[in-house]
Specification:
The protein has one domain (about 5-130): Jelly Rolls (Sandwich). Strands 1, 2, 3, 4, 5, 6 and 7 form a seven-stranded antiparallel beta sheet that branches. Helices cover about 5% and strands about 45% of the residues. The chain has one helix at about 10-15; strands at about 25-30, 35-55, 65-70, 75-80, 90, 100-110, 120-130. With about 130 residues, the chain is mainly beta.
Length: about 130
């Protein structure tokens, strides 16, 4: 799930474009503060890395990661400070907590570099193990 899609045009800017491995497509949020992405995994996973590629000028200066097991409330895992660049950014140390086993992960983009609060993500990857 995502917080919003630019002009509700899911065909051109929908969430599926973060995972299609195409450099031509992206998820583009609508304007507003605190955009977010929630990932519900089909089975429990142990997360170790987050890969994200923004469009420069439409990135987030501050990302909050929250996670939980099925049936539980989200708890804060980590805070990330991405760069405002087009390159893939990899967070090796994003999950420095003892328990990183999750069924759900929420990434909140707290502070957009875009004046209107839009976020553009070309690639989002979560690495780990089952």
């Amino acid at each position: 799930r995502v917080s919003s899609v630019l002009n509700r045009d899911v065909k051109q800017f929908g969430k599926k474009h973060m995972f299609d491995a195409s450099e031509e497509t992206c998820w583009n949020s609508d304007q507003g503060t605190c955009q977010w992405v929630t990932l519900d995994f089909p089975r429990t996973v142990k997360v170790s890395q987050l890969h994200i590629q923004f469009q420069g000028g439409f990135s987030s200066r501050l990302c909050t990661l929250e996670g939980c097991r099925a049936g539980e409330e989200l708890v804060k895992i980590s805070t990330l400070y991405p760069e405002d660049i087009n390159a893939m950014q990899i967070s090796f140390a994003a999950f420095q907590v003892e328990e990183t086993v999750l069924d759900k992960l929420k990434i909140t983009f707290e502070n957009s570099t875009d004046f209107f609060g839009r976020i553009v993500v070309y690639h989002l990857g979560v690495l780990g193990e089952r």
